[in-house]
Amino acid sequence: MLSISEFSEMCQLSPQTLRFYHSEGLLVPADVNEQSGYRSYTFDQVEQAMLIALLRGTGMSVKLVKRALDEPDTAPALLRQHVEEVRLQRQAQDEAIGDAREFFTSWPEVRLRHVPEMTVVSKSVPGPSAGRSQYDWDEVDLTVVAAVQDVVRAVESCGAVVSGTPWRVMANETPEQKKQSLTGEGPHWLVKIPVTADKEAIAALPGDLEVQVFEARDELSIFIPGKSSMAKYGTAISRLFAHPLDAAYIDVSRMRQVLHDGGIETTAAIRELDETGVIG
Fold first, then answer.
1. In the predicted model, is pLDDT for residue 90 greater than 50?
2. Does the residue 103 lie in any domain?
3. For residue 88, is it within any domain?
4. Which of 111, 121, 197, 221 pairs as cysteine with 160 (C-beta 3.0–4.6 A)?
5. Cβ count near 128 (within 10 Å)
6. SS3 per-residue string spanning the chain
7. Which residue, 19, 51, 74, sits at the end of a domain?
8. Which tens digit of pLDDT belongs to each residue from 15-68?
9. pLDDT at residue 127, rounded to an integer
10. Using an 8 Å Cβ cutoff, are 252 and 156 in contact?
11. Tell me, what's the pLDDT at 187?
């Protein structure tokens, strides 16, 4: 029999770790003295300790390691599952590192610009339920990207040309959209794509696409890199509202999110006050 200190040294597992594995039923000592509580192990348990160390070294949870040891036939599949989870986690970490590096290299700043009049094609986007306790921005991004791709294909198939960066806005342009946006069915978003098209191309567009005129306007904008999140959206809004304006204010009913490859640019139209302070 090997004492816990001897077994610890042989297996390169600390006594604290061995006690934890014992409590989890992962590596149970061959004997536990009832009076002193001292744990003893057999030499045959070294192999089991080695396998545990190998699997735990991959980052696999104690629960999965125990299952792999209890059901050896499932071990390869469990390891493949864990490898895929690690890959996704590393991918998410790499993206977060890239976003953080870009964020701190070039701190997001609010900019004032003029946007000219343009023709846009609009399409409604079904989205996650507005009644959910936590808004799923990943799902929003996926459905919006799919809708943009559908519109681009439809526009180009009719001979029109995409002439600018797409954006999304909340679906509240009509009373019906406002009503539906409060339901699970939606739509909750609209995608807008600038186009250059003649009358024939516009007439050939599918019926679920609406052609609109985007009026020229001045607006504030701020670009935040990376995936969408409520925190980033809130940060963008707070920065826009904090930006000083001279005899003007932000029109929250005319906000949009421009869809760049590396992140989201949140914009808000500016409306001026006249000399008496009345909204113009």
1. yes
2. no
3. no
4. 197
5. 17
6. CEEHHHHHHHHCCCHHHHHHHHHCCCCCCCEECCCCCCEEECCCHHHHHHHHHHHHHCCCCHHHHHHHHHCHHHHHHHHHHHHHHHHHHHHHHHHHHHHHHHHHHCCCCCEEEEECCEEEEEEEECCCCCCCCCCCHHHHHHHHHHHHHHHHHHHHHCCCEECCCCEEEECCCCHHHHHHCCCCCCCCEEEEEEEECCHHHHHCCCCCCEEEEECCEEEEEEEEECCCCHHHHHHHHHHHHHCCCCCEEEEEEEEEEEEECCEEEEEEEEEEECCCCCEC
7. 74
8. 999 999 999 999 999 999 988 889 999 999 999 999 999 999 999 999 999 999
9. 63
10. no
11. 64
**Domain membership flag for residue 83:** no
Query: What is the pTM (predicted TM-score) of this model?
Result: 0.70
Kindly state whether residues 137 and 211 are assigned to the same domain. yes
Token readout for 258 is 């421009």
Cα distances from 122 to residues 110, 119, 210, 216, 246, in angstroms, run: 26, 10, 5, 17, 32
Residue 277: per-residue pLDDT: 47
More confident residue, 16 or 129: 16
Do residues 117 and 244 both lie within one domain? yes
pLDDT (mean) for 173-183: 77
97 within domain boundaries: no
Torsion sign across C-alpha atoms 239, 270, 162, 156: positive
Cα(256)–Cα(230) distance, rounded to whole angstroms?
15
